[in-house]
Amino acid sequence: VKPTPSNPLDSLVDGDLFKSAVVIAWGVKGTDGYFTWCFTGSGSQIVRAGLILTNSHVAADPAPEDECDPKATIWVGYQDDPKSDLYYWFPGTTIALDARHDLGLVEVDFGGKTLAPGWPVLQIAELADEPRLGAPIRVFGYPGIGGDSITFTSGFVAGWARDQDASEDAAVLKIDITIAGGSSGSAVLDTLGRVVGVVMMGGVSTDGSVAI
To answer: What average pLDDT does the segment 83-107 reach?
Structure first.
């Protein structure tokens, strides 16, 4: 049975919205079935099962400073229990990268298997539905704080900032929320569970003095 997108409102009520978040890892699977990781980030399943939205710097080939095994490939891990650090791992393929906006898409290879019917699939909000200043937002991700299980944080829209490189006003959404490194690529959700942004790595200031 092919999984179908769940209603975001239903997911919020029944507590299953967190299942839309995935951990993305670069590593090598040993003959014993165990993995050796060199780099991890977060992502979210959008539009349909197996299509993962994340950051470009998470989905792109690891950089030399990541010290990854040359044979490392990308893997996607799903969790169905927020108290557990047990993942269901599937290989992935990076299908699109936009380094300019630090966005990437990964396709999951389920190998003939399927997710449980109704597994949450996030929808992207229309631009006209952009949240207002002070609106509540939430993030599910895998920052590795307090273990490997999923972490939930919430906050508010804090404003907008200019993108100096693109000379675009209000191009970056500022959020008042606690974020840590492994949360890179997590979807930022509005109160209806729609994607209104993606957590990115960077800093913004009026004079460009905030370093990445």
So the answer is: 92
Token pair, residue 47, equals: 């539009």
Helix/strand/coil for 209: coil
The torsion angle over the Cα atoms of residues 119, 198, 57 and 65, rounded to 10 degrees, is -100
CA 184/CA 1 separation, integer angstroms: 32
Nearest to 98 by CA among 51, 41, 161, 55: 55
- Span 156-168, pLDDT tens digits: 999 988 666 656 6
> Tokens for 26?
């670069």
Joined tokens for residue 185: 């690529």
pTM for this one? 0.86
> 95-130: b or e for each residue (b if 16 or more CB lie within 10 Å)?
eebeeeebbbbbebeeeeeebeebbbbbeebeeeee
The C-alpha atoms of residue 131 and residue 148 are separated, in whole angstroms, by 30
